[in-house]
Amino acid sequence: MVSPNRAVGVFGGTFDPIHAGHLRLARALRDELSLSEVRLIPAGDPYHREAAPLASAEQRLAMARLAVAGEPGLVVDEREVRRGRPSYTVETLAELRAELGPDVPIWCLIGGDSLAQLATWRRWRELFALAHLAVALRPGFDPATLPEPVAAEWRQRQVSDFPNRTPSGTIRALTLPPMDISATDLRARLGQGAAVDGLIAPAVLAYIEAGHLYGAGAARPT
Ligand SMILES: Nc1ncnc2c1ncn2[C@@H]1O[C@H](COP(=O)(O)OP(=O)(O)OP(=O)(O)O)[C@@H](O)[C@H]1O
Ligand SMILES: O=C(O)c1ccc[n+]([C@@H]2O[C@H](COP(=O)([O-])O)[C@@H](O)[C@H]2O)c1
User: Fold this and answer.
1) Max alpha carbon distance in the chain (Å)?
2) 8 by DSSP, 3-state: which?
3) Where are the transmembrane segments (predicted)?
4) Residue 3 reports pLDDT greater than 50
5) Which of 121, 123, 133, 182 has most ligand 2 atoms within 8 Å of CB, for mutation?
6) CA distance 63 to 69
7) Which atom of ligand 1 is nearest to the CA of 182?
8) Tens of pLDDT along 59-88?
9) Ligand 2 contacts CB of residue 128 (under 6 A)
10) CB 91 within 8 A of CB 126
11) Which residues have C-beta atoms less than 6 Å from ligand 1?
């Protein structure tokens, strides 16, 4: 029987910028599963997005590091930034599986909007052989509208708790209520000079302002 706290959490994202919603999810994953470690993995080259991130991979990595500083159990894994190729989650999970061995449960956290797109991910069906999926519900998420191949996995693989009896292969929703916060909205607010109090970690906001990322500071009223 695998000890539950040997399980590892993985949370990948563009993190342009990392925000309070991301941190809330990472903490929820850690706490609901009693994980000793959740790895936040900034996507070096999020090839799947229509527009490239505004902040560079190094800046997004730096912001992630600032965001988790002093947070028990949350660490930043820079492998996708260092990889120098498109960021494929299947590749990341295969690397982690090789490093952690076959028995350690890996919980890969994604938002409901990412789940809806899962069938577009590279070699997506292989993900279930490598990790469990934890899904963070997001405002507007409706399982009834999932594309059928994903809906079939959602139905068949759901479990009602986090058992950690198997190292991979199940799906479940986190219990925490959805929160309406997105990096898109924050980029817009920063560009307009609008308040972002409580939505971005203070150290990350200081980094954004110092580097004038997202137009921060440019549009403030004089
Ligand atoms: N408020 C949220 N609720 C649930 N999941 C979220 C939330 N914000 C982000 N996520 C999830 O976190 C992961 C990384 O998200 P990402 O870095 O793209 O942030 P985002 O806020 O969705 O950014 P953007 O608005 O630029 O698309 C994705 O799987 C996304 O679904
Ligand atoms: O592996 C893929 O093909 C793939 C396709 C789309 C998204 N992802 C991953 O999903 C995570 C969330 O993506 P995003 O765009 O919401 O930040 C991030 O870690 C991406 O690398 C992965």
Assistant:
1) 63
2) strand
3) none
4) no
5) 121
6) 10
7) 21
8) 999 999 999 999 999 999 999 999 999 999
9) no
10) no
11) 13-16, 21-22, 25, 110-111, 113-114, 136, 138, 179, 181-184
Q: What value does the mean pLDDT of the chain take?
A: 93
What ranges make up the beta strands (E) of the chain? Answer: 8-13, 37-42, 74-76, 106-111, 132-136, 171-173
Q: What is the pTM of this model?
A: 0.95
Going by C-alpha positions, the residue among 176, 40, 169 that lies closest to residue 105 is 169
Read off the pLDDT of residues 135-167 as tens digits, 9 standing for 90 and up: 999 888 898 999 999 999 999 998 766 555 799
Above 0.95 for ipTM, yes or no? yes
Q: What residue ranges define each of the domains in the chain, with the CATH number in brackets?
A: 8-180 (3.40.50.620)
- pLDDT at residue 140 in the model: 85
- 185 CA: nearest ligand 1 atom: 25
197: which 2 tokens?
């109090």
Of 77, 87, 92, 130, best ligand 2 pocket probe by most atoms within 8 Å of the beta carbon: 87
Residue 6 pLDDT: 86
